[in-house]
Amino acid sequence: MNSTAEIRRPRDDERDLFGLTHVGKVRQENQDHFLICTVYRQVVIDVTSLPNVDQLELRGPRLATIGLVADGVGGSDGGSDASRLAAETITRYVASTLRSYHAAGSANEDVLMKSLTDAVLQAHDVVRAESATRADPRPMATTLTLCMGVWPWMYVVQVGDSRCYYFDGNRLSQVTRDQTIAQHLVDTGALPKERLASSPFKHVLASAIGGEEALPQVSRIDLRRSGTTFMCSDGLTRHVSDEEIEAHIKAMTSSKQLCETLLALALERGGLDNITILAARAPLPKA
User: Fold this and answer.
1) Which DSSP category does 10 fall into?
2) Which one of 18, 69, 145, 232 is CB 3.0 to 4.6 Å from 256, fit for a cystine?
């Protein structure tokens, strides 16, 4: 059971991270991609005369933990390629901008926020450039939800309708906002909130990597409480409610168990789309 007590920075071996993706029961191809990675400051020795190099402490402290979900749009190979290209571009970008991580939570935090937005817009440009070389008229686009934990903060960047949630030990909150036509209509008062679930525009994206427009939104969460970060594509949320996700997080024994249980539930209810689920937590150390 998670606690709301404030915690220290978790060690690497205290983190409980897991992710999976599944084609579902209807689609022929899995167009989702995901990534969980850790960024370290590290020295790589190419050539040396020094003995016992393996005994040197060459890997510095953990700078960041990153989770990413990209859900390809459309039924063509372009959707799969778009999500792959977006994930690869983001990974390369965050690896090349290590210095910006030190701005987390500081007066220079705008540097980090801008680097995250720039990374997403670079992925957008890469996907659009690739799409321009293809004769296929079908869309080449993807959602992108990126979480980057730089202790004691987590930064979340959103494009599209994959989701990031945070469970703080008491309640589950949706960190991201779905960038769909239906959600926009609700936000502007043109559609009653209670009709959102039945709207034909519920899964029509207003913003997408590689689409007509990418509008990244950045949020920040304080991680100094023992909580659980949960990310997924809409292949899960079309079958499993927020209330059910919260209940399963409260009962979880591990991130792996949580992801596998929710995947099984979505498949049992039809598995109409590709399903990607990520979970990350830092359980309180055992006494």
Assistant:
1) P
2) 18
For 102-147, give the DSSP string: GGTTSTTHHHHHHHHHHHHHHHHHHHHHHHHT----S--EE-EEEE
Q: Residue 104: name the closest of 222, 191, 188 by CA.
A: 222
Give the pLDDT confidence of 67-83 residue by residue, as tens digits: 999 999 866 678 999 99
pLDDT tens digits, 83-112 = 999 999 998 888 777 656 655 656 567 888
Delimit the domains of the chain by residue range.
Answer: 12-39+59-281
CA separation, residue 197 to residues 97, 172, 209, 213 (Å):
40, 19, 24, 24
- Rounded to whole angstroms, what are the CA distances from 77 to 63, 91, 106, 196? 35, 21, 42, 30
pLDDT category, 1, cuts 50, 70, 90?
very low
> H or E element: which one contains 83?
helix 77-96
